[in-house]
Amino acid sequence: MSTRIVQELQYDAPLADVAAMLADPAFREAVCVATSATRYEVSVKGVQGDPMDVVIEYAQPTDRVPGFAKKFVGSEVDIRQSESWTSLEHGDIHVTIPGKPGEMKGTAVLSEKDGVTTETVTLDITVRIPLVAGKIEGLIGKILGSALRAENRTGITWLAR
């Protein structure tokens, strides 16, 4: 069983500009800062519009995580996010927490209408811990939603420069 989240991020910019932003390591680093990552490393390989791989390895503090979940993750959690973009419009996402029994898999899809680009992020969250998996999946979904909203705010500011 898993928990699915769908988040739409809107940008008042053409699809090509949003895709270029998502391919820029400096933007990805700005998102890490905006989401309070305590450390991070960003790698972008390939060319925007051709197959492109993005890997972001970062650590997040768990000070806002409820006690029942903190015993599973500790005071900080390491996260590895990999994205395989097969075109400007489509990326496959895989997020893992090394050493922990769970993952997130899904897609990011860009679409443009009248100069406004929407990035639709769909992720299935799976936690393999008996009895508390559903609670932890829900918690991860809330945290991820907050992180995606921070990414959206960062992107809006980035594109307005």
Nearest-integer average pLDDT: 90
* Uncertain regions spanning at least 5 consecutive residues: none
What overall geometry do the principal axes of the alpha carbons give? globular
With helices defined by DSSP (H or I, 4 residues minimum), what is the helix count? 4
What is the chain-wise order of helices and strands? EHHEEHEEEEH
The rounded Rg comes to 16 Å
Element layout with pairings:
Elements: E1 3-11, H1 15-22, H2 25-34, E2 39-46, E3 52-61, H3 67-73, E4 76-85, E5 90-96, E6 102-113, E7 116-127, H4 133-159
Antiparallel strand pairs: 1-7, 2-3, 3-4, 4-5, 5-6, 6-7
Features:
single chain; 161 residues; alpha+beta; Alpha-D-Glucose-1,6-Bisphosphate, Chain A, domain 4; 7-stranded antiparallel beta sheet; 4 helices
Architecture overview:
The protein has 161 residues and is an alpha+beta fold. Helix 2 crosses helix 4. A hairpin with a 4-residue loop joins strand 4 and strand 5. The chain has a 7-stranded antiparallel beta sheet. The longest helix has 27 residues. It has a single domain, classed as Alpha-D-Glucose-1,6-Bisphosphate, Chain A, domain 4 (2-Layer Sandwich), CATH 3.30.530.20. It is built from 4 helices and 7 strands.
